[in-house]
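Anyone opening a protein record will find just a pair of labelled lines. A complete record is shown below as an example.
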Amino acid sequence: MLIAAAVCPCPPLLVPEIAAGAAPELDGLRAACAEAVRALAAARPERLIVVGPAERAGRGPHAQGAAGSFRGFGVEVEVRLAAPAADGASGGDDAAGQGPSPSLPPSPSLPLSLAVAAWLLEHAGWDPAVPVEGLGVGEPLAAERCIEVGRELAGRAERMALLVMGDGTACRTLKAPGYLDERAAPFDVEVARALAAADTGALAALDEELAYELKAAGRAPLQVLAGAAEGAPLKGELRYDEAPYGVGYFVASWSS
């Protein structure tokens, strides 16, 4: 059952080497993410699963120790999804919509969202003795399937935790990646409210089409969280809610 969860955004600018001179602008966001990861550790889970958006090549399970790189952003920064577990445990669910696939070999390289998560785990001091797995989910994944995947993940261990990576809308300002859309702010307000209240019903009800139009890359991972947390007695805490580059960034903790 799910005993704790954290939600963090996944912009590559979280990595200071990529942000370079602009790195201090996101110091508050980095600090909030670190606090959320440490709160996950404090819950003493038996297993952590990191869920994040992924392009087709990165969808599905990623084993502990899987490698990622930020070379595409012009920096020589490489990460691994924590250290390999002693028992070699790996696996996950096929987020492309094919159901559980324990025999599916993990992808060779982490998608960007999970690479950012790996960086966060490393810099927050995650205990490598706690097994970690990754799961890349596709933006088109239907809400119903996201919720099913979440339910399946929650049953993986008696004390399961999730680190959910994903941004809000990318249409909050004129200079935002998706330009200004007046529907973006109300969408993000509802997401922030749901995260603060640990409202699984509100996350499950997020409009898929509207999320796509507003470039809200975190919609599917958030709905995986909604499925995983069904029936779990969790309370929410919103640690960060800003749109520094016209993109909604949230950090939240759910705990019992």
About this structure: Residues 85-108 have pLDDT under 50 and may be disordered. The two ends are 12 Å apart (CA to CA).
